[in-house]
Amino acid sequence: MIGLLHKGVMKDDQLDLMFKALSDSTRRRIIDRLSNKPGQSLFEVCAASIAEGGVALSRQTVSQHLAVLEKAGLIEITWKGRTKAHSLRINKNHITAASWLMKYNKNGEEE
Fold this sequence. Notes:
The protein has helices at residues 2-9, 12-22, 25-36, 42-51, 59-71, 92-98, and strands spanning 75-80, 83-88. The protein is mainly alpha-helical. It has a single domain, classed as Arc Repressor Mutant, subunit A, CATH 1.10.10.10. Strands 1-2 form a two-stranded antiparallel ribbon.
């Protein structure tokens, strides 16, 4: 599996971006929200963080989190009129990269 990562499917810098994006719990919650409801505006993502009993995040903070997710290729942006719509974009390379750690699970146990 790691061979796939180094044979051009996903390069080290792309892998670093993905793991950096996933290292933050706020970004993981944003991914969860976008998987349930794609095409959300910045306002909707901000409002959802409050509605779920989370901490109110500024538009700038949410915008920065979305930029990290976009740079990692985990979300895509489309335009609905003058509003950016954010949707989850998970592909085969992301799944392979996330599965990379499985090679270290020698006992096959899940925790």
